């Protein structure tokens, strides 16, 4: 994909349509080694520090799709675009709340192998311009002997730039994961807590805090832009939905030995349990 970084590198980027303060808490609960950096107006980029797809035998696409799904469902109010690439393919996955994920894939030589309708759905869910932006996206789904998978992803980023995305300088999809990590750190990216600071410790922390501390945390959330969703019937309904969706997803991920989907399910379960527990303490 990129001659300067060797043939067909493997890597991924997670583009969250929210500011860093909103992305930081759910990203931290993933329990993965991630770098976080602002990426334009209303955007945040997450760069994997580790390479779980090399150790778990799971394709990079499945790993980052699980992460994106967990983040989007946990956030509920903002979508996540996962860009991924490996030695044979590259693609994108859009996760938005509890909706079914939308994805598109290209072979390494740029041959499109996705459904045209998926790209239109991608544009609609991100509230992109239904005429101008779609006109730029549609050629990415057509054969082009001059375009490889790397240039297809760069084209997607160019369209998202019209919606405010501005990746830090040098952070280019299609590069080796090690180079992305180095570039992100050089640009001042924040290192999120890695393994050992995820779901189980979060539950332990909730238990240790006690009622007063949890209420203080809830009050801080309530003063923010999502305050009206921080408690009450809507919060309980969302927590219940997260729990109901997370349990079967966690079981499915474990049965399939899919780390990405198991992580997504576990994060949903944790968010649901935490939400219901916090509501009970508030009451």
Q: Could you give the order of strands across the largest sheet?
A: 6-5-4-1-3-2-7
Distance from N terminus to C terminus (CA atoms, Å) equals 55 Å
Separate helix tally: 10
Q: How many beta-strand runs?
A: 7
Low-confidence spans: pLDDT under 50, at least 5 residues? 1-6, 195-230
Number of domains: 2
SSE pattern: EHEEHHEEEHHHHEHHH
Average of per-residue pLDDT values: 79
What structural category do the secondary elements indicate?
Answer: alpha+beta
Helix residue percentage: 40-55%
Strand content: 5-15%
| Overall 3D shape | globular
Measured on Cα atoms, how large is the radius of gyration? 19 Å
Task: Profile the largest sheet.
Answer: 7 strands, antiparallel
Primary descriptors:
283 residues; 7 strands; seven-stranded antiparallel beta sheet; alpha+beta; globular; single chain
Report on this structure.
The chain is α+β, with helices and mostly antiparallel strands and 283 residues long. It folds into 2 domains: 3-191, no CATH class; 199-282, no CATH class. It is 49% helix and 13% strand. It contains 10 helices and 7 strands. The protein has a 7-stranded antiparallel sheet, sandwiched between helices. Helix 3 packs parallel to helix 10 and helix 9 (233-255) packs antiparallel against helix 10. The longest helix has 24 residues, at 199-222. It is globular, with a radius of gyration of 19 Å. The protein starts with 10 loop residues before the first strand and ends with a helix.
What is the fold's blueprint, element by element?
Blueprint lengths: L10 E6 L3 H10 L4 E5 L5 E5 L3 H4 L4 H16 L4 E6 L3 E7 L6 E6 L8 H10 L6 H6 L11 H13 L15 H10 L3 E2 L7 H24 L10 H23 L3 H24 L1
Antiparallel strand pairs: 1-3, 1-4, 2-3, 2-7, 4-5, 5-6
Helix pairs in contact: 1-3, 3-10, 8-10, 9-10
